[in-house]
Design goal:
With about 375 residues, the protein is α/β, with parallel strands linked by helices. About 45% of the residues lie in helices and about 15% in strands. It contains 17 helices and eight strands. Strands 1-2-4-3-5-6-7-8 form an eight-stranded mixed β-sheet. β7, α15 and β8 form a beta-alpha-beta unit. The chain is globular. The termini are far apart.
Length: about 375
């Protein structure tokens, strides 16, 4: 029976991958088309190889020393940039553009920046400087190393990208899909409490601690790793998934790297009888160096809800009800954990079936002439994200 179930799962995945071939071809074509553009012709007055109404892609710009520590930077059309500057330049300097740092999913072991070219181009067409980063993959590193990469890319966006391309370092949206949303939330938890046990590079964490994204947007994210592992086990795919191994291959390691459990562990509204809640509280107390026998030492530690309080001023969970890879309950529970722990703002947006795990990042318009304000061809989640 298990063999039949695995065979059915494998066949389903093959059908899904086959169905995605047209999208992959379109994404690769868009990526190749825009990576040919020259930066000089995008910004000077020669107009020799690029339409003023087109976006520009700077592929594989490094934010670190590893070959996977790179990001594609999608720059808005020059005409849109200039019109925005003119509109805001009466009596003062032009307004810098909003920025988006996107972190892909892929079971912590796969994913490429070009996969998201249609979405990134659409964001740039709407005036948003968009960086699509890649990060080190399992088994070369685990979730801690990947969270460190997110921190490094965030600090890089706020400094170098913002300065070079007139971006607003105080208006950065951190957007993650699936495993990427988990890494975003993990990085935010580590950054909020300076917890070096959640990332594997203290120096990177210190740099990122000075940068606060204005928004965190999760697209079909996974936040309770032990619970999701049980879901994978019931589906019979736990041996195919790299999730458990990327976390550290034990229940305790999975719980320690689960953002929703981290928040529940410090929330006064958490279920005190929950095994995972008790375990996470214990792990976090250890990480914060709390001494339960000496309550006076608690004055030097974080307040119970301080991690949530230091989350971005806006958090949004976009999730598809037809998602069978990461059920929507993951987003519901993380949203509730943030609210219980006192986050500044958390909002949950649900999209009906048959929208599934990939819809929110793959169902974006592919037309080269899509323009700012022309949103009739956008799906509801695309409009919400914009």
């Amino acid at each position: 029976q298990r063999s039949l179930h695995l065979s059915w799962t494998a066949c389903t995945e093959i059908v899904r991958i086959t169905a995605a071939i047209p999208y992959a071809w379109r994404a690769a074509r868009i990526h190749k088309q825009h990576s040919r553009k020259k930066l000089s012709s995008h910004y000077d007055d020669n107009n020799n190889s690029i339409d003023d109404d087109d976006v520009l892609l700077l592929p594989a710009v490094p934010y670190g020393s590893h070959k996977r520590q790179v990001a594609d930077i999608w720059l808005p059309p020059r005409s849109l940039s200039e019109s925005n500057e003119d509109a805001n330049n009466e009596g003062g300097a032009g307004k810098n553009r909003p920025m988006c740092l996107f972190i892909h999913g892929g079971v912590w072991s796969s994913g490429e920046a070009w996969h998201y070219a249609p979405m990134a181009r659409c964001l740039a067409q709407h005036g948003i400087i968009t960086a699509v980063m890649t990060y080190r993959l399992f088994p070369e590193t685990g979730a801690k190393g990947q969270a460190a990469d997110v921190c490094a890319a965030l600090a890089w966006c706020a400094s170098q990208v913002a300065q070079t391309h007139k971006g607003d370092a105080e208006n950065i949206a951190l957007v993650g899909h699936s495993a990427g949303a988990h890494l975003c939330a993990l990085a935010l938890c580590a950054k909020a409490a300076s917890l070096s046990n959640l990332v594997d590079d203290d120096s990177i964490l210190k740099k990122a601690s000075r940068v606060q994204p204005r928004r965190f947007v999760s697209l079909n994210g996974v936040f309770d790793i032990p619970s999701h592992y049980e879901y994978e086990r019931r589906r019979g795919v736990e041996s195919l998934s790299t999730m458990k191994r990327a976390m550290g291959d034990s229940h305790e390691a999975m719980a320690a790297l689960s953002p929703s459990l981290i928040l529940r562990g410090e929330s006064k509204c958490a279920d005190a009888d929950s095994l995972s809640g008790r375990r996470t509280t214990r792990l976090f107390s250890r990480a914060l160096n709390k001494d339960k026998k000496d309550k006076d030492k608690d004055k030097d530690t974080m307040a119970p809800s301080s991690i949530a309080a230091r989350f971005p001023e806006e958090t949004y969970f976009l999730t598809a009800l037809g998602d069978t890879t990461v059920p929507f309950v993951e987003s519901v529970q993380m949203h509730g954990a943030l609210q219980e722990a006192g986050a500044p703002h958390s909002e949950l947006l649900l999209y009906p079936a048959p929208n599934d795990h990939g819809s929110l990042v793959l169902a974006w318009p592919g037309g080269a002439k899509h323009r700012f304000g022309d949103d009739n061809d956008l799906a509801p989640w695309s409009r919400d994200l914009l």
